[in-house]
Amino acid sequence: MSETDTRTTEEPNDTAPSRRPGRERGRDDGKFGRYGGQYVPEALMPAIEELADAYGRYVLNNEDGFMDEFRERLADFGGRPTPLQRADRLSERYDTEVYLKREDLLHGGAHKLNNALGQVLLAKYMGKERIIAETGAGQHGTATAMAAAHLDMPCTIYMGERDINRQRPNVFRMKLNGSEVKPVTTGRGTLKEAISETMRDWAETVEDTHYVIGSIVGPHPFPVMVRDFQAVISEEAREQAIEKTGGLPTDVVACAGGGSNTMGTFAEFVDDESVALHAVEAGGSTLEVDEAAGVAPNSASLYAGEEGVLHGARTKLLQDSDGQIMESHSVSSGLDYAGVGPELAYLVDEGRVSPVAVDDDAALEGFHRLSNTEGIIPALETAHAFGFLEEHHEELGERVVVNVSGRGDKDLDAAIEETDQRDVPNAPDMSMFTEGM
Ligand SMILES: Cc1ncc(COP(=O)(O)O)c(C=O)c1O
């Protein structure tokens, strides 16, 4: 911990208040200050209203025991609770207690299953017969395909062509679970286009189809509903931290793409004013923006975004001065999105959440550091949180929880390629992989 840190940490948070039930997180109107809302074509309004009604009945009021069944399936199929583990080497390195919330150990290898399982189950309760979803890194697609197979629902996943090439193992996993994978070739072939294509499908099939959105984005009720399904991360982490360490953490860290990992990890800590919340977004190759080319070589919409409307909600977006959405970039496909959830944008404006951008190089270093010091290979998305730890540990308090949102198996090919392209000081000798034996 830094000597210049002025926060009081003598008695960190040992008088942690007991928790209100998660269901009281509120925002039933889907408005977070200026952000959120329901900016959708008329054709989708009945589906959105039907979903808002189902969210209220089944998720908020546990009608027909929906939430009980959800929790039971998260435990038996998903493997919850995931552990909160002390990271011994990182604690020593940074001279602070570092704890890892191990969402990489959730079935499927990422936090995405919490939301996918919740929504596919909700679709069943609503009497829907078909599931559609979009995916960037493939983690949400994989989670949705697994949940759909588990609950016996036919499933179609839209995925940008470029992401298909970056995430081949995940595409195969979706197909193994019986889902159809539809390549999206418009635009840059990444998450933004995949979401637009899935919205188009939904507009034509709303009667019998549920669209499982993969993050806290989209029109109300998606942002609050996805947050509530993901909030199990912070419900567990908060209890585990109190049980293991006798108090609340001083800092909670999570990487942010659309923001479901972040809001899931923060939700139960938002009212704990002593806990600092750090949302780590992708700084890409630079935070500079090339307006003329319409390219932001980063995905730092909390840092560099301006207010606008995308995919059904008002939020912070990477856009040019004409309001055109810019191409984003990140070494990790799961963070490569030009927007962010409205709740996260709001909490940043309110000063409750601190946004920090970590660039591709620092993320790669974080990827190697967690792998070779703690024996945990993180997803490249997650690696940004460890890049943050290396760069900002002196600003943190004495007890830090970092969410390991996913494991890195899906990223091994990308990690070989990206490591080879740069001088990563803590990487192994790559010649065996790049030049042949
Ligand atoms: C492991 C992992 N972490 C984080 C993210 C970012 O998404 P979100 O911000 O919605 O959690 C993704 C997205 O695919 C992911 O796969």
UniProtKB/TrEMBL annotation:
Pathway involvement of the protein, from the record: Amino-acid biosynthesis; L-tryptophan biosynthesis; L-tryptophan from chorismate: step 5/5
Domain Tryptophan synthase beta chain-like PALP: 78-406
Cross-referenced PROSITE patterns: TRP_SYNTHASE_BETA (PS00168)
Broad EC category: lyase
Cofactors named for this entry: pyridoxal 5'-phosphate
Highest taxon listed in the record's lineage: Archaea
Disordered: annotated span: 1-34
Summary of subunit composition and partner proteins: Tetramer of two alpha and two beta chains.
Name by which UniProt lists this protein: Tryptophan synthase beta chain
Organism: Halorubrum distributum JCM 9100
